[in-house]
Each structure stands twice: as structure tokens, then as C-alpha cells.
Amino acid sequence: MMDKEEIISSDSEEDEEDEEVGKESKPDAKKKGWFSSMFQSIAGKANLEKADLEPALKALKDRLMTKNVAEEIAEKLCESVAASLEGKKLASFTRISSTVQAAMEEALVRILTPRRSIDILRDVQAAKEQRKPYVVVFVGVNGVGKSTNLAKVAYWLLQHKVSVMMAACDTFRSGAVEQLRTHARRLQIPIFEKGYEKDPAVVAKEAIQEAARNGSEVVLVDTAGRMQDNEPLMRALSKLIYLNNPDLVLFVGEALVGNDAVDQLSKFNQKLADLSASPNPRLIDGILLTKFDTIDDKVGAALSMVYISGSPVMFVGCGQSYTDLKKLNVKAIVKTLLK
């Protein structure tokens, strides 16, 4: 069982177990880590060859897949590690388990670390200085908890003294506007709504204009859940993003469904690219993973989603209350993947 608090803790953790595998030098078979046992037979080689690495890399791939990393991504990751180690010269009798551990950790941290920095609070301040609201659009398939997690993000912003307005742009699903209205009432924040059967792109535009008038610093735009292969609804979403040019497009996916969420994210990005009226279409900027408290150590979907999209996991939902929204702890995720 993983320590869920560790996986979602803030940036102050220390990886006390990072050196664990490298310390396994005593011949106690029961206590040997899997890295140590796989590499014992080639410890002390002057340099590593592909044939030496293949059995261990197969075990590594299998290990990652048990943690819900997509097979194709586990394969590519192992190829990357093999390329970094093949031909590497080591001193005689040097155990190489620690070398393999370091190479894998480096690759995983590199994947999970954002290619570009997204600091919402900093960017909200920058938008405020330009006298315009910061706009976040929440997208995803049906039933993943977009509205609930939008409310959690609203609460998080309120805790940081940021004024927020909700925009009810799910004009398709019955009850969606009422659900968002309930959250707005509980959080005591304004909501912009126009009811049902309206063009969500236009509703969003009017909401942003209203936020500019009333001084709201952030607009959180709720959208209808849609399957990634529903072209009419995907076209409507593409229009909303193109017309309003939000500061952040946040994909909400369930950690529980594992690699189905990876497929959803990949196809969302593809559809947004294909259907956009812009030559430089906006794609998914960041990821919010829900139900993260239900997956034990099967954290691989987070790795897979970041790998295929290049977008960071910005938040994880880990419960039902407004406070149950955390930042992802990259080092703890890596440690869990390598257990």
C-alpha cells in the first residue's frame, strides 16, 4: 500500500528511500530488491552491453505495467534507459543496481516535470495587471466530476485570496446549471448562467465580459461532458476555446480508469487540433486527476497522461470535500512506480 499523503504532499518531502536499492549488497535473497536481483549476475562488468540489459529491462517494463503505466509507454521508457546505459563503463566489482535506479528515476522525473511552468497564482496576478480576468476552461468526458472539481479549484483560489466567478457553460446536461449554482451558493461566489440550449461559446464570452465588469479575477468555465469521438460536441468545445482564448484548458480525468483516461486525453487533443479554426490550435494545457485516493499504488496513468500530452498534472482530487484537492508530488510518484 502506498502512503497517499506522501503521493499528494507538497514540495517539502525528502526521498529517504532513494538509496534503498543501492544498499542491497548482502546476499539475503528474501530481502533483495528486484533491481538488485536482476543485475547481480552482471555486477562488476567493465561496461554494459545490450544483452546484459534485456532481462532486467523486461522485468522493469513488467513492473511499470503493474503500476498501470501503458505498455507502449513502458516500452519506450525502457528503451530510453537502455540507450543511456548501453556501453557505460563501470569500475570493476561495482554494483550497477544503483546506476539503473538512478537512470530510471531521472527518466521518470524528467517526464513528470512540466515542459513549461504553469503557476496559476502568478498568472492570475499578471492578468490582473492587464485588467482582465484569468480564464480556466474545464473539459473532459461524462461523469468524471468536472463541476465538483471546478468547485474545489474555486475553493483553492479563495484560500489564496483570489476572487472567483463560475460560468455555467454546460447548457446540454439537465441539472448541470443547478449543480454549479449549488456550489456557487455554498462557496458564496457569483455565477454567470443563461440556462439551457444556448451556445456555450457565447455564454462563456458573456461571462468573461461580466467578470471584467464586476472585478472577478478568475472565471472558471464549466463545460458539458462529452466523449472524445462525439464530433458535434467536440466541435462546440473547439469553438468555445477558439472564441474565448482561455488562459488555461484543464482536462479532468479519472485516475481510477487508468489508461482509458490516457486514450481520452490523446483523442481530446487530436480532435481539438483537427476541428480548430486556428492554424495554431489550443490543446490541453494541464491535467486534473480525480479519485486519486482510490487507486492504491496504481499511479501509472498519471505518468502515461503526461508522457503522451506533455501537459503537467496540476491537481489531484482525493476526496469529496472542497479541501480535497492537492498538488502532485513528483518524487513520491516516482518512488511508488519503482517499488
Automatic annotation (TrEMBL):
It is a peripheral membrane protein. Residues 312-325 form the SRP54-type proteins GTP-binding domain. Pfam families: SRP54, SRP54_N. One of its GO terms (molecular function) is GTP binding. Its main location: endoplasmic reticulum. SUPFAM superfamilies: Domain of the SRP/SRP receptor G-proteins (SSF47364), P-loop containing nucleoside triphosphate hydrolases (SSF52540). The keyword Membrane applies. One of its GO terms (biological process) is SRP-dependent cotranslational protein targeting to membrane. GO terms for cellular component: endoplasmic reticulum membrane. InterPro entries: AAA+_ATPase, P-loop_NTPase, Signal_recog_particl_SRP54_hlx, SRP/SRP_N, SRP54_GTPase_dom, SRP54_N_sf. This is SRP54-type proteins GTP-binding domain-containing protein.
